[in-house]
Amino acid sequence: MVHEDSGQFCFVITEDLEGERLDKCLSELMEDMSRSYLQKLLADGAITVNGKKVKASRRVSAEDRIQVLLPPVSVPDITPQDIPLEILYEDKSVIVVNKPKGMVVHPAPGHYDGTLVNALLFHCQGELSGINGILRPGIVHRIDRDTTGSVIACKNDKAHAIIAQQLKEHTVVRRYHAIVHGRLKQEEGTIHTLIGRHPTDRKRMSVLKTGGKDAVTHYRVLKLFENYSYIECRLETGRTHQIRVHMAHLGHPLLGDGVYGPKSCPFHLEGQTLHAKILGFIHPETGEYIETNAPLPPYFQELLLKLR
Q1: C-alpha 175: how far from its chain's center?
Q2: Helix 22-29 and helix 35-43: axis angle, to 10°?
Q3: For residue 13, which of 61, 82, 73 has the smallest C-alpha distance?
């Protein structure tokens, strides 16, 4: 077992969370922790609101200050697993892989194996950056479980810091291919909104008028079909579910996306048709521009043939 030091967190409640039960609010703010575990922390007095011990059923108010003191916790060792990887680029500093559908990028409580991290630990023989801790070695960014395509991981802390800075400055090139419902009227365009947690469904993201984070997606049509459009989206920012939320906001949700689009799908897909195709970055050691191109997965290619 690997033991982590205790951690302390402090949250200030915003207006969009006002009125929620404290335990529910915390489960949204601390997504990696179960509601039952947070309720236990509340019962033990490890969580206070405005400096006072409170019950899980307490309703929060805007500007409430919540302090969470986590006791030392233990998590299983994250073990290397011999899981096949489609490698698009690799050297001593970075590795770019074409992630398959259904694979989670990094372990989380209750899900400690079968992830991209488990596969990378085996392939890289443990040589991954440690900036993001024991659960996310090497991971600089992530894509959704059912999104396929390019993911970059770093093998040392120097490379990690440089790639993370490029992501922060929006200089990493990220182009996604997607199939959306309906025929887009414009051949290309830009969606610029604020994105944050949905006001009533905290597991979803949403376009907001205030309180969200700036999000910019550029799109262009690659092919029009009778009832669908094949598009490319270029991310300027990288918010959670950004393309899925933006295209749904435009009235063209991703095909297969049961969260932001129709619940039923005529093609029996497993999640959204979204693929991280192009990834470009400045190499952290050489300064050279590196660009990878992840081939579309078979299901995506077959779907395009059916639509034609």
Answers
A1: 16
A2: 120
A3: 61
Asked if 228 and 255 count as a contact pair (C-beta separation under 8 A), the reply is yes
The burial class, CB within 10 Å (0-12 / 13-18 / 19+), for 51 is: exposed
pTM: 0.78
The average pLDDT across 244-255 equals 98
* Model pLDDT, residue 246: 98
Closest CA to 25 of 45, 109, 16: 16
Neighbours of 226 (CB within 10 A): 7
Alpha helices in 53-199 (DSSP H): 116-123, 157-168
Q: Which of 23, 64, 144, 257 is catalytic?
A: 144
Q: Chain-centre distance of CA 115, in angstroms?
A: 14
The predicted pLDDT at position 68 comes to 87
In angstroms, the CA 156 to CA 94 distance is 8
Q: Phi, psi (5° rounding) for residue 189?
A: -175, 180
Helices (H), the chain: 22-29, 35-43, 116-123, 157-168, 242-249, 298-307
Amino acid, res. 187: E
Which amino acid, one-letter code, is at 9?
Answer: F
42 close to 23: Cβ distance less than 8 angstroms:
yes
Q: In the prediction, which pLDDT does 35 show?
A: 74
Q: CA gyration radius for the chain?
A: 21
Spatial distance between the Cα atoms of 213 and 221, rounded to a whole number of angstroms: 26
Active-site residue, 144 included? yes
> What is the signed CA dihedral for 104, 107, 111, 114, rounded to 10 degrees?
60
Q: Checking phi first, is residue 270 left (phi over 0); if not, alpha (psi -120 to 50) or beta?
A: beta
Q: Do residues 270 and 255 lie in contact, with contact meaning Cβ atoms separated by under 8 Å?
A: no
Residue that the structure tokens 């291919």 belong to: 177
The two structure tokens encoding residue 294: 């992840």
